[in-house]
UniProtKB/TrEMBL annotation:
<dbReference type="InterPro" id="IPR002347">
    <property type="entry name" value="SDR_fam"/>
</dbReference>
<comment type="similarity">
    <text>Belongs to the short-chain dehydrogenases/reductases (SDR) family.</text>
</comment>
<dbReference type="Pfam" id="PF13561">
    <property type="entry name" value="adh_short_C2"/>
</dbReference>
<dbReference type="GO" id="GO:0006633">
    <property type="term" value="P:fatty acid biosynthetic process"/>
</dbReference>
<comment type="pathway">
    <text>Carbohydrate degradation; L-rhamnose degradation.</text>
</comment>
<keyword id="KW-0560">Oxidoreductase</keyword>
<dbReference type="InterPro" id="IPR036291">
    <property type="entry name" value="NAD(P)-bd_dom_sf"/>
</dbReference>
<protein>
    <recommendedName>
        <fullName>L-rhamnose 1-dehydrogenase (NAD(P)(+))</fullName>
        <ecNumber>1.1.1.378</ecNumber>
    </recommendedName>
</protein>
<dbReference type="GO" id="GO:0048038">
    <property type="term" value="F:quinone binding"/>
</dbReference>
<dbReference type="GO" id="GO:0019301">
    <property type="term" value="P:rhamnose catabolic process"/>
</dbReference>
<keyword id="KW-0684">Rhamnose metabolism</keyword>
<keyword id="KW-0521">NADP</keyword>
<dbReference type="GO" id="GO:0016616">
    <property type="term" value="F:oxidoreductase activity, acting on the CH-OH group of donors, NAD or NADP as acceptor"/>
</dbReference>
Amino acid sequence: MRLLEGKTLLVTGASAGIGRAAAIGAAAAGASVAINYSRDDAGAEACVAEIERAGGKAIAVKGDVSLPETAGEFVARAVEAFGKVDVMVNNAGICPFHAFLDMPVETLERTMRVNLHGAYFMVQAAARQMVAQGHGGSIIAVSSISALVGGEYQTHYTPTKAGVHSLMQSTAIALGKHGIRCNSLLPGTILTDINKDDLADPEKREYMEGRVPLGRLGQPEDMVGPIVFLASDMAAYVTGAALLVDGGMFVNLQ
């Protein structure tokens, strides 16, 4: 089903991981796709090439999401290429694991700037374009199960993910009158570059897998269906919501 036929979808942090899977999956669902990335030129080029080989349309725009001007440029380049913005998927994020008591100031501030400030700038730029177009849109923020639970080595990260979810709740109210829907996705442990070092320990990985009722850790492709759904007209009456995509990890207390 090409649920996104005729739509233009933007996704940040898309040279790898969830963002890459979202871009390729959205293109397969019919969308024209603009991807943002910060450093990995080869990864971004490979993502665009895969979309184009399958007959889709895509562009890559390099930029640091922590800088407010990056958001405006990303949206402008997407409009230049495809004429409009229908969907923004705010996915870019970092999580340099570190203990709390000796957390470097620069690590805290960089995580806040990328994960939370970057989300704010991207969502605001996309919303401005959607309002100017006058036909609504969908904004999806990739938050995390970490918005709901703590992490010993994530005291700088979990507040940003709670903030991203809160941003979607507030923007759902602010933008509803413009027909713009704002929702959060809360993935559990998805195997990406963010956690590959942490999960390189076999005992840690086995423990994490044991916490998941479905019996496995997530893959980036597990996020595609929920993203396509929230981006599509099937979710026309869904806004301000949060969807857990975690294999049941959150509810598995005992």
